[in-house]
Design brief:
eight-stranded antiparallel β-sheet; nine-stranded mixed β-sheet; about 30% strand; alpha+beta; D-amino Acid Aminotransferase, Chain A, domain 1
Length: about 350
């Protein structure tokens, strides 16, 4: 067990955990060698300790820790992957650190320092280097988290926090790879919100995802890949799927994505796709509300973006028990190839998003 009174130092790690079969990777957890943790205390200056790197293992906390009862926790997801020549590249990890700060602030938790986040992410990749799959076989997925850990009985702000970062090699989020899904994802549109207005929808908070598990699972049992939520006020305008942002390419050539608000997560892949479409591919882009009716009547393509999802086309939407199909995916394919070319070092990205992890 890893206890809070463990001295802050770097522990030696014996690399005994076997690497997975790269040809059989799925989007599931595989243990790696090293994780990171840092304790924060708002009564101290500085709030956060320097952090430590530990063998992957369990964390011992009190059952009265605030996040256990009240869901005071936020998380991130990002990837490291190899280039053709074996280098390891991270994509926009500083932006993940900034979003973790904003999510934490929404729950009145101490924001974790940006530079410390960047350093810890890079070092976790170095120490788990042997788990970064070969190019084309998968990625090393990193999961940074922050939780309120002080003993708490009763609602209210907390003072003690824990940041943990671990990693896992993963394959495709879906059981079939993009090349094997020519018709795209099958989505059920629901006339309900993913999150409550005025809530934590713009934060990557634990509770945002828990409630949607049963909803998505029920529809997946009926043959859908995921669900599409409408905004909670009018149940008219598109917001997100369970875990991705949505884009609609209209027949007039304009690419539309819903504007950020308290019901939509500011996706890093969303922003990457938007900037790439506008500044590299020369597509006219708009951030504005778009109704489900406008989308299904006037869409040339519809696709989703997310760290785990990458850029995936939607081939079919079922709304009010009527099926609408979208056969084209030219822009989605171009965006996916362009962003992947940055992430894997095939092209030098024009935005400065990629950083090599020096071993």
């Amino acid at each position: 067990m890893l206890k809070q009174d463990t001295p802050t130092h770097i522990l030696a790690v014996n690399s005994r955990t076997p690497t997975p079969d790269w040809d059989k990777l799925s989007f599931s957890f595989s243990e790696t060698d090293v994780m990171y943790r840092s304790f924060g205390d708002q009564t101290q200056d500085p709030i956060w300790d320097e952090g430590e790197y530990l063998p992957f293992g369990a964390i011992e906390l009190s059952p009265a820790a605030a996040f256990m009862s009240y869901g005071l926790g936020v998380f991130e997801g990002l990837k490291a992957q190899r280039s053709d020549d074996g280098r390891i590249l991270l994509f926009r990890h500083r932006d993940n650190g900034l979003r973790l700060q904003k999510s934490a602030e929404r729950l009145l938790m101490a924001p974790f320092p940006e530079d410390q986040f960047v350093e810890a992410v890079e070092e976790i990749v170095r120490r788990n280097e042997r788990f970064v799959p070969p190019k084309g076989k998968g990625t090393l997925y990193l999961r940074p988290m922050e939780h309120a850990i002080e003993n708490k009985l009763g609602l209210g702000p907390c003072e003690k926090f824990l940041v943990t970062i671990y990693s896992s090699p993963v394959g495709s989020y879906f059981s079939l790879k993009a090349a094997e899904m020519p018709k795209g994802l099958r989505i059920r549109c629901l006339e309900q919100g993913r999150v409550a207005p005025g809530g934590t929808g713009f934060a990557k908070a634990m509770g945002n995802y828990a409630g949607g598990i049963t909803i998505a699972a029920n529809w997946r049992e009926k043959g859908f890949d995921d669900v599409l939520y409408l905004e909670a006020h009018h149940k008219k305008y598109i917001t997100e799927t369970s875990g991705s942002n949505v884009f609609v390419l209209l027949k007039n050539g304009t690419l539309v994505t819903p504007p950020l608000d308290d019901q939509i997560l500011p996706g890093i892949t969303r922003d990457s796709a938007y900037q790439t479409a506008k500044d590299v591919l020369g597509v006219k882009c708009e951030q504005r509300p778009i109704s489900i009716d406008e989308a299904i009547e006037d869409a040339e393509e519809i696709f989703c973006t997310g760290t785990a999802w990458t850029v995936r086309n939607i081939g079919e939407i079922v709304h009010h028990d009527k099926t609408y199909t979208f056969e084209k995916n030219d822009l989605q394919t171009s965006l996916l190839q362009e962003i992947l070319s940055y992430q894997t070092g095939e092209k030098e990205d024009p935005f400065g998003w990629v950083k090599e992890v020096k071993l």
